[in-house]
Amino acid sequence: MFSKFFKKESPFVGLTGLGGGFSFFGSAAAITGGTIIESGNVVYHVFTTNEDFTTPSPLSAEVLIVAGGGGGGNATPNPGSGGGGGGGGVLHGTLTIAAGSYPITVGAGGSGSSGSNSGGNSTGFSHTATGGGGGGSCINTGGTPGAAGGSGGGGAADSAIIPGGNGTQSPSSPLTGYGNPGGTPSSQDSDPSSGGGGAGGSGGNSDNHGNGQGGAGRPFSNFPGPVFSPALPAAAVSAIGPTGLFAGGGGGAKSQDASPGGSGGGGNGQRGSTGSPGVANTGGGGGGVCRAGSGGSGGAGVVIVRYTT
Asked: What is the pLDDT of residues 2-58, one digit of tens each?
């Protein structure tokens, strides 16, 4: 389906007289950084670790910056449940990149805990995508709200209505920002927690029937999952899918069942034990947990640079 090659920190050589925004001034160009994939006349640089992107000549490139997803919230056996983690904030658009070397930072996923469980920021070309907010936790007779973040964490369930966090990802000109709030329980019930927000939609508000689904990820059609195999883990390729879904929110949980995570890497909520983690390199939020246990960890983010030859 795709014609591609993979190189780690290797030069892409021999691009001269190119259109699509390129302006090379020598007989060859060596653009390095990340795992390099060629699909037809399109080149992707996929960053899953902190590295530099280096170009010897200016170019126009489409950039996708996805922060780490928030971890799901904890629950103690009182009973109660922790909310789903918010998906990582997303920045997307076209940049004119001057010749030079640019540090790329890939945000880690947040831990599934009652502490600081928000995801890490991802940065590139002086633009920052904000980590997803951690899901709220249920702690003995109280609870914590979902944390604000790129997308907000879902609210915990206890004897009070504990809100979700705000989605705080804003545009970073000329890039467009995507993030949404986490859900809030709609009744004072000790079981169902709410879903974390996703880049494509808000986290689901929970009620006595559950319904605290994670917010949907957002599709980016020029970044389909299949083109990134095997540069990304198989789980990430599947979660991203052919429409390019990233940064789904983690699902909430209740005693009888659990709510699913949002499309694009959000982890499912679970009853007891540990919430499902967000999928690595999608920025998905971790799932919440009900009736004692730890929330799932958030999925790490990713930075992808795309240009045509």
From this structure: 444 455 543 333 332 333 333 332 222 589 999 999 988 999 999 999 999 999 999
Contact by Cβ (8 Å): 266, 251: yes
Residue closest to 83 by CA, chosen among 91, 94, 73, 92: 73
Q: Which residues pair with 218 in a beta bridge?
A: 246
The strand ranges marked E within the chain are 6-8, 35-39, 42-47, 51-55, 59-66, 90-97, 100-105, 122-124, 127-129, 138-139, 142-143, 176-178, 218-219, 245-246, 270-274, 289-294, 302-308
- Output the CA angle 288-289-291, nearest 5 degrees: 155
CA-to-CA distance for 83 and 85, rounded, in angstroms?
7
- What's the predicted TM-score (pTM) here? 0.90
Instruction: Report the chain's terminal Cα–Cα distance, integer Å.
Output: 19
Contact between 208 and 157 (Cβ < 8 Å): no
**Residue with the two structure tokens 């060629």:** 38
The closest alpha carbon to 120, from 134, 130, 135, belongs to 130
Going 173 to 302 to 218 to 113, the CA torsion angle's sign is negative
Picking from 232, 234, 258, 259, the residue whose alpha carbon sits closest to that of residue 248 is 259
pLDDT tens across 190-225, in order? 568 899 999 999 999 987 777 799 999 999 999 999
Q: DSSP state, 32?
A: B
In degrees, rounded to 5, the angle at the alpha carbon of residue 106 between the alpha carbons of residues 264 and 240 is: 20
Between 200 and 257, the more confident residue is: 200
For residue 2, which of 228, 307, 236 has the smallest C-alpha distance?
Answer: 228
Strands 289-294 and 270-274 come out as parallel
